[in-house]
Amino acid sequence: MARINIVTPESASAEQKALYEAIQAQLGMVPNFLKVFANSPAALKAFLGLHGLAGEGSLDPLTRERIALALAQQNSCEYCLSAHTAIGRKAGLSGDEIDANRSGTSRDGKAAVSVKFARSLVAHMGEITTAELQEMRDAGYSESDIVEVISHVGMNILTNLLGKAARVDIDFPKVDLRLAA
Questions:
Q1: Helix (H, G, I), strand (E, B) or coil at 50
Q2: CA triplet 22, 30, 69: central angle to 5 degrees?
Q3: CA separation for the pair 9, 92 (Å, rounded)
Q4: How confident is the model at residue 27 (pLDDT cuts 50, 70, 90)?
Q5: Domain 61-166 falls in which CATH fold?
Q6: Whole-angstrom distance between the N-terminal and C-terminal Cα of the chain?
Q7: What pLDDT band is residue 181 in, cutting at 50, 70 and 90?
Q8: Of the candidates 61, 82, 46, which has an alpha carbon nearest to the alpha carbon of residue 148?
Q9: Shortest CA distance to 115 belongs to which of 159, 158, 149, 76?
Q10: Phi and psi for 76 in degrees, rounded to 5?
Q11: Which of 27, 28, 36, 82 stands 20 to 30 A from 21 (CA)?
């Protein structure tokens, strides 16, 4: 059971209901973590704005999901791992690729560099090395791409923190944090 109130459609204010309608129209559902965000409509709008902008960038949806999967595993957020496993599958990631992402890599060479970079950003609180930046550039990532990876890392840390702090009820097929041996 969630430790932070989930704003239900029945208990939502007019502003929260309008946000839910927009989310429902886009996603076909209102995930529980957004119902927690809705406790502060300003926080929910800020997250949706960042999420929308990040989705318009140069990083492809598969790379964004790979990063989300790697960080959900690294940060031990079962809600986010479950959500991004479902979203990643829908986007076209195979089970083997999802397992690789959870382990901090990818079967795609270029994507493996971005996943590794994202995990390093988290592990070192942004104190990455010049060599890590150069590895991103050598893999074909532009300065814009690098900033977008950093933005996606920040966004995923935010959702991982909210998911864990709130102990949000998982409304996707549940995925266990433990990796297969």
A1: helix
A2: 115
A3: 31
A4: confident
A5: AhpD-like (1.20.1290)
A6: 29
A7: very low
A8: 61
A9: 149
A10: 55, 45
A11: 82
Which residue in 82, 81, 57 sits closest to 71, CA to CA? 81
List where CATH 1.20.1290.10 sits in the chain. Answer: 61-166
- Amino acid at site 90: K
What is the pTM for the complete model shown?
0.94
Q: How far is CA 51 from CA 15, 86, 124, in A?
A: 19, 18, 24
* Single-letter amino acid, residue 62: L
Look at residue 179 in the predicted model and tell me its pLDDT: 67
Take residue 20 and report the two structure tokens written for it.
């839910």
For 97-107, letters b (16+ CB in 10 Å) and e give bbbbbbebbbe
The residue behind tokens 């994202």 is 118
CA angle, 140 then 143 then 144, to 5°: 100
Instruction: Tell me the C-alpha distance between 36 and 156, whole Å.
Output: 16
Q: What is the mean pLDDT of residues 142-160?
A: 96
Residue length of the chain: 181
Q: How far is CA 98 from the centre of its chain?
A: 14
